[in-house]
Amino acid sequence: MTKVRIGTRGSQLALWQADKVALLIKKQHPGTITDLVKIKTTGDKILDSPLSKIGDKGLFVKEIENALIKREIDIAVHSAKDMPTEIPAGLILTAYLKRDDPSDALISADGRTLDELREGAVIGTSSLRRRAQLLAYRPDLRFVDLRGNVDTRLRKLKEEKLDAILLSGAGLTRLGMGDKITERIPASIVVPAVGQGLIVIEAREEDRKTLDFVEFMNDRDTAVCVKAERAFSDSIGGGCQVPMGALAVLEDGTMKLKAVVASLDGETLLRAEIDGPAEDGEALGRELAERMKDMGAAEILDEIRRENC
Q1: Which tens digits make up the pLDDT trace of 255-267?
Q2: Residue at 114 is within a domain
Q3: Would the CA dihedral through 209, 212, 218, 224 be positive or negative?
Q4: Is the domain of 229 the same as that of 306?
């Protein structure tokens, strides 16, 4: 293989991620030519509506997957948190790059931490997951929907006189903006999105040559953890934009998986954890989902879907 066509969104962060994959390929396979193919997705085209009102988690990947199916690209590079649990027939998530810090990051206008923000502070975020969990922690907070790339959101922090905004800490760090982070929110307050903080590569399942070509990028520990999180999401029914999060970590061969499901107003917030052998990660994810259903998670999510999906 002398040329690899890499499908990616055209945002600054997406291009950074695709460039990273291209550099890794060139280092591992000297002489390879990489071609970045920028593809605009539905989520990139519609910027004037909340994500929860315009579709499911496939908003940022469907068009790229279509290009992969049509053989217009050889691999697709995604943020794992954008990936639906159901992958189109014939495609496969083949490599999970080593995960960066998955936490959400608070950027405040005046350097105040979450606990220090004034009563009734206004926070910008497009995520129902972040909003619901922060409301459970601080019911006095107010929220406005915030869309656009990182630069746009940082600009709106000042222009719209917001007290703070919430973004992915990993994304800010990748763009060299880690110094703008006021506070990384611990998972004890806000559980991250499934797959947050990592890059995943998608390819055609029958394309064995390409699968073997990119296998070196797969971090096994990361893959085990994210597959557990995705198994939880799939079992709980998290396809639409809903206030749900899950995070798996490994400690001495043991997986610890925590998850949260919340009502939109944050008044009902269900948390649960499970641990077990790392090799049983996906089974642990499914078991945790069943436990949370017994706690009432299914009813919460069904009601939210009726209103937002």
Answers
A1: 999 999 999 999 9
A2: yes
A3: positive
A4: yes
Known catalytic residue at 82? yes
pTM of the predicted protein model: 0.92
What residues contact residue 10 under an 8 Å CB cut-off, 6+ apart? 38, 39, 40, 44
User: For residue range 146-162, what is the model confidence (pLDDT) as tens digits?
Assistant: 978 888 899 999 999 99
Full domain range(s) for residue 291 = 220-309
- Range with lowest mean pLDDT among 53-57, 120-124, 159-163: 53-57
Domain co-membership, 160 together with 150? yes
- Report phi then psi at 35, rounded to 5: -125, 115
Q: How many CB atoms lie within 10 A of CB 201?
A: 24
Adjacent-strand bridge partners of 255: 250, 276
Pick the catalytic residue from 82, 104, 163, 207: 82
229 within 8 A of 198, measured Cβ to Cβ: no
